[in-house]
Design goal:
- By secondary structure, the protein is α+β, with helices and mostly antiparallel strands.
- About 65% of the residues lie in helices and about 10% in strands.
- The strands form two sheets. The protein has a five-stranded mixed sheet with strand order 2-4-5-7-6. It has a two-stranded antiparallel ribbon with strand order 1-3.
- It starts with a helix and ends with a strand.
Length: about 400
């Protein structure tokens, strides 16, 4: 590291010296020296920046559920062996209990060892690291079988059949352990890859939803602010601050989880800007049935898109406007959020309201796209009990969001 850093410093010194020597030289030489200095600075910057750690590819066996999987598979193998027809020995209850204890002990030992060595094995390639993990499991099984065979022979318990020799017992146990570990690791590796793809898909849908929200909302907000600058500069300044806070909360607060309180605040800031644009046409009524789980972790942008749809596909398409009712209530098991607003009939939405096709927005599909994206991300975060529904009835549209609390 020190040698590479010294090389970059020497390159920087040479570049500066070139600039000093060729200060009166042709422009091409000066440009070349400046480019060399810039390259040296970039090289030094790359040396000083820490490299982010990679995610270990080896499945995490430290989880309680995966430990139970290993123990369950080990016991299943003992049951299969006990049920298989064999002529060398009869399976008694004592032999079955001792075999189960031995298999569970091996499974627990191998799982703990792979849990501890996960970071070191993940530094290798998957092929080499997986082979080494299976070999470690086989070695532990062979050593454990040899110890059990020696103890059983010395004490004369008869747990191991007399016809089974030490070599066969040790190698057979090692082969079974290696096969089980290889199958379980491959299965968990595939599960981890699938879950990573699902997370990436949910993140991509959230990014696509943000990209869909930004163009037309920013376009309308900036037009509204431009119209207020001369007539009401104080109101325009407040709108700029609200718009800044809204985008900072929606896009600049990282890509982690949000909370119910943050989602409600985000929706309130959005509605405050839209009220400035629509005036008396937009009325909002909040109903909060306390106590509410304000710290409940939620995916980002699960409430604001529903509120935006109520404005975009409902209030803004009705000349007289209307009122949006937003209700939040929770019981012991479920958080329910509903957004109720007047809206034209689904067949009338194509002709009602302004034409926004030049901004890349499909008014017919925007509502459904937002609800599908929210439902997908909530299902990934909370399971199939999370629901997002929407229906139109007699001039009103109701969007409901249900999130399990347990």
């Amino acid at each position: 590291m020190s040698g590479r850093f010294g090389a970059s410093m020497r390159l920087t010194f040479a570049a500066r010296r070139s600039v000093a020597l060729f200060g009166r030289a042709p422009a091409r030489l000066v440009s070349f020296a400046a480019q060399a200095q810039h390259a040296a600075a970039a090289f030094r910057h790359r040396l000083m920046d820490p490299v982010p750690p990679r995610e270990p590819w080896l499945p995490d066996l430290c989880r309680l559920g995966r430990l139970a999987t290993m123990l369950g598979v080990a016991e299943l193998v003992i049951i299969v062996i006990a049920l298989a027809p064999a002529a060398d020995a009869e399976w008694t209850l004592t032999r079955f209990a001792s075999a189960s204890g031995f298999a569970l002990w091996l499974a627990l030992t191998i799982t703990v060892l792979l849990c501890v060595s996960r970071g070191q094995l993940s530094r290798l390639t998957p092929a080499l690291g997986g082979t080494l993990a299976v070999s470690m499991a086989a070695l532990i099984a062979a050593c454990g079988a040899a110890m059990l065979y020696a103890i059983d022979s010395s004490l004369g318990y008869g747990l191991v059949a007399e016809s089974v020799r030490l070599q066969r017992f040790a190698l057979g146990s090692a082969a079974i352990a290696a096969l089980i570990v290889a199958i379980v690791l491959r299965y968990l590796y595939a599960v981890d890859g699938w879950q990573a793809q699902v997370r990436a898909s949910a993140r991509a849908e959230a990014d696509a939803l943000q990209a869909r929200i930004k163009p037309h909302f920013l376009f309308n907000s900036m037009n509204m602010i431009a119209g207020l600058l001369r007539r009401e500069p104080e109101v325009a300044e407040r709108a700029v601050l609200d718009l800044s806070d809204l985008f900072r909360a929606a896009l600049g607060a990282g890509k982690g989880e949000s909370s119910l309180a943050e989602e409600v605040e985000l929706a309130e800031r959005y509605l405050s800007i839209e009220q400035l644009r629509l005036g008396e046409r937009l009325q909002v009524r909040w109903r909060r049935a306390e106590p509410l789980p304000w710290d409940l972790p939620l995916p980002r942008l699960v409430l604001q898109p529903l509120v935006e749809n109520a404005v975009l596909h409902g209030i803004s398409r009705i000349p007289a406007g209307g009122r949006i009712d937003i209700e939040l209530n929770a019981d012991a098991d479920t958080l329910q959020i509903s957004v109720h607003n007047p809206a034209p009939a689904p067949r009338e939405r194509e002709s009602a309201g302004p034409d926004m096709s030049n901004m890349g927005i499909d008014a017919r599909a925007g509502n459904q796209h937002a609800q599908r994206s929210i439902a997908h991300r909530l299902t990934f975060a909370f399971g199939p009990r999370a629901r997002v529904t929407g229906r139109w009835h007699e001039g009103y549209y109701l969007a409901e969001l249900r999130v399990p609390l347990r």
